[in-house]
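Ticket opened by: R.M.
Priority: normal
Category: complex prediction / small molecule

The reporter submitted a protein together with nicotinamide-adenine-dinucleotide and asked that the result be attached to this ticket for the collaborator who will pick it up next week. Submitted input follows.
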Amino acid sequence: MSLSPNHPQAPAPPHEHVVLNPATEEVVATVPAATAADVHAAVGRAAAAQRGWAAAAPADRARLLRRFAAVVDEHREELARLEVTEAGHTLGNARWEAGNVRDLLDYAAGGVERLAGRQIPVPGGLDVTILEPLGVVGVIAPWNFPMPIAAWGFAPALAAGNAVILKPAETTPLTALRLAELALTAGLPEHLLQVLPGAGPVAGNALVEHPGVAKIVFTGSTRVGKQIMAGCADRVKRLTLELGGKSPNIVFADADIEAAAAAAPMSFLDNTGQDCCARTRILVQRSAYDRFMELLEPAVKEVVVGDPADEATQMGPLISRLQRDRVRSYVTDGLEMFQGSAPEGPGFWFPPTVVTGVDPTAAIAAEEVFGPVAVVLPFEDEADAVRLANATEYGLSGSIWTRDVGRALRVSGAVRAGNLSVNSHSSVRYWTPFGGYRQSGLGRELGPDALTAFTETKNVFISTEA
Ligand code: NAD
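Result attached by the on-call engineer:
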């Protein structure tokens, strides 16, 4: 093992990342890991590309982004198969994810010519605001949704006139690298969208520290998000954080209990629970608890877990051995629970797991497990449901199941989270805003204001009296 010269105790950062298929543990690819020097060079290239891009006519930028969307669409199946291989996503999900990149680019392209400032009445002249691009934007992406989350950052950032350097997660660099190639195929200027795989503390940190990077868009763990926030604070760097969650699924006794129980399994098993919006705390009103559990258990056990490339599969493996170890550490002996099935043999498999009879403050009920694990907790009344829903440091998503419209509105108002859905588990649409309260994040992505988040507002007053 080689040792870093600066930290004699620490192993040197890897020079390459070995990408494994999480369903088989076979090596898929080996990808060079960027150093801090590589990042610095990329920032210089990006800054030069950005100047030309910002100077181009809005209609031309929009046309190129639409062409990028079209090229992604033409390669949708290839991108989806690559995601199945590197991330273990089910084929159906991966197809949706590649389509989501296309849609994000199309939506952002529609904003380029509408990104307008304002004219504000003032005495003695004309006052206008101008929305200027920030410059070079660093996007640090996680492994749980490698394509959509990267595009949540790069599509609006490019549309607003910025250049982007994307650092994908160590385990999932392949679709990001392919998207950068497709950008060139579509005719986007060279170096406008660069993808630099690398270790978080090396390549990711170099983006945070580089004075030529104007904004960081980070999605990942709250722990790393706090470090990035501290790094950005030093330079007053713009920052968006999309962090963890422990989202409630609140089921009132007056709800359609059959529908709530049928929808609950995939609300925490989709993407094998590796979803910041996963509804992993199922809160059920005590008077409906037994009926709900009677329906939930068979519904969870029916979920098809297996080869993610099989069209019928609903849940694949976890991303890595490390992630499986993390998930296992929460599911300790002696817990009251039931489990579905998972394949034996190679692959990072973990069965769907539902835990009952735990205290709301137990680690499994309070921390983000990021695996196919939910807890069910009973509550007495509306006030108790809201208290339990808010008894977390997070505040990303949540669902409310009730037939009472007034209750749905009251509880939506009282739950401290950024993305709620009533009688459904929907959270993310590219045309509606997404983001967290409290330790689930900072800022909003997606939606009608997505491009504005990648601009600086300049106010100009022009005197008419000179
Ligand atoms: P992570 O936060 O370590 O990694 C996310 C991204 O940040 C990766 O690209 C990584 O390389 C980069 N990164 C790591 N350290 C960095 C640093 N010091 N400076 C700059 N960039 C850095 O996530 P993880 O370790 O892969 O997963 C750990 C846990 O995080 C999971 O179990 C889950 O609870 C949570 N998580 C949440 C999300 C989400 O969507 N909110 C996504 C991934 C992971």
